[in-house]
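To the team - zinc ion complex, inputs and output below.
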Amino acid sequence: MRQIVKAVETSLSETADTKLSVVRLKVSAISHLLTHDHATLHATFQLAARGTKVEGARLEVIPVPADAWCPQCQRDVSVTPAHEVCPSCGEPVVAGSTEPEVVLHELVVQR
Ligand SMILES: [Zn+2]
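Output:
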């Protein structure tokens, strides 16, 4: 979560004198972040944001489908949030290597 706050701060430094209100993240369906409930995520975010320009912003998480690998079927599959199993055989899948788990999607600032 600290890396996320850092990334947000970097984006914000280009726009001084703005008040950040919302941070939107796209989170991969197989990210460990989605195993936490939203209250926990938000608390972690607030903790990481304390003392930074990000402090006080609201966190919004947008779960997105992810590429994964099914060891049973030996093929790439796509999994959707809250359903991280192979669509063919129902076995657990492993994360694909290419996509980042978390992407900074959008920052909403008040002017
Ligand atoms: Zn499978």
